[in-house]
């Protein structure tokens, strides 16, 4: 595993443990060159499935897109990376059950649901883009309906 700080390839595993849902292994690593510590996750690779976009176009599922969108919503927020990883793993398990594929709209709704559990501010950030509100009033109404 390459060190994210100095890009050295020699790192050692300090600690390994299963995640809460038992579907991934969390590893704490240390770079043998610069001493930086970082966490990696090892998980089963899912059978790939197709995502139908709103334009009707199909494309293979890309975990990186989901991770990036959730990370953007969580920018400058204090969150547990393990809980984020568990949330994405749970979503992927749900989505992989549908053999015909999944729609991008469903992915967006499910991400919103998970973000609401993780962090309300991140939920609102994501919702403001996902729902594409035309006015502040519309967004305020959405907030009142969702968060009461």
Describe the overall structure.
The protein has helices spanning 63-73, 81-96, 104-118, 120-130, 136-147, and strands at residues 11-18, 24-31, 37-43, 50-52, 58-60, 102-103. The protein has two domains: 1-44; 47-147. A three-stranded antiparallel β-sheet has the order 1-2-3, with helices on one face. Strands 5-4-6 form a three-stranded mixed β-sheet. It is of the alpha+beta class. Helix 1 crosses helix 4 (120-130). A hairpin with a 5-residue loop joins strand 2 (24-31) and strand 3 (37-43).
Tally of DSSP β-strands: 6
Radius of gyration: 18 Å
Could you list the spans in which at least 5 consecutive residues all have pLDDT below 50? none
How many helices? The count is 5
Average of per-residue pLDDT values: 88
The largest pleated sheet is described as: 3 strands, antiparallel
Number of domains: 2
SS strand fraction: 15-25%
Q: Gap between N and C termini, in Å?
A: 46 Å
Spatial order of the strands forming the largest sheet: 1-2-3
The helix-and-strand class reads: alpha+beta
